[in-house]
Amino acid sequence: MKLIVNADDFGYSKGVNLGIVEAHVEGIVTSATMMMNMPGVEHAFRLAASTPTLGVGVHLVLTCGSPLESNVPSLTDENGSFRRGQAHLAEASAEEVEREFTAQLERFFRTGRKPTHIDSHHHVHARETILPIVLRLADRFGLPVRYPWAFEQTERSLTPQVNTTEGFSHHFYGEDLTVDGLIGIIDGLSGHATAEMMTHPAYIDEELLRGSSYAIPRTKELQILTAPEVKKYIKLKKVQLVTFNEIG
Description:
The protein is α/β, with parallel strands linked by helices and 248 residues long. It has one domain (2-246): TIM Barrel. The protein is built from 8 helices and 7 strands. It has helices spanning 14-25, 41-49, 94-109, 131-141, 179-189, 206-211, 217-225, 228-236; strands at residues 2-10, 31-34, 55-60, 118-120, 167-169, 194-199, 240-241. Strands 1, 2, 3, 4, 5, 6 and 7 form a 7-stranded parallel beta sheet that branches. Helix 1 (14-25) packs parallel to helix 2 and helix 1 (14-25) packs parallel to helix 7. Its EC number is 3.5.1.-. It is an enzyme of class 3 (hydrolase). Pfam families: YdjC (PF04794).
């Protein structure tokens, strides 16, 4: 099996960025996705430049921070920030969503790099009203997309084929994180030729504590993703750790 271990939220803050890079250098993380609208993004790009083995894609955002576009009222609150939650996305302007996602992707390309793939914060790309927009952009920019059919919002029959993995897991998340739990997730994906697992390793900093409801468990994720037992299991099972560039 070819396994992508992706760390979401690259660019959220320096603590998140440093945790992701350590999870790659010392652990099994192979890939990360960048939040192009967050304050740690420039720091993340500097780290990525010095860590060329880490695949880096775009973590499309509609529910955290502020938009890059200035006129997207169906997505923002009275302060100009993205609205919290996802209830409003069912009726959000498709044109505004596409402009904002395009701005986030184009900001990445202006760095001179090409993203490895597209995914999204809080899985908004898998929503029935938003997935067609993401698929159009994936086709336009020639990018793979995180497997969107693992989420309840979207039926596979409603969407065309995209370049993605055969399997995906978002279960390495929450309070009950253990080495055995991680090994079980990887084992559960082993029936697929290609698969991706979502992770959120980080060091805690003020920005993360203040802005995210999921903070302290990220340090536990970092500990597990760099655990010797996990690396030993990967080697024993001959799991190939790859990026999206290697699944085509």
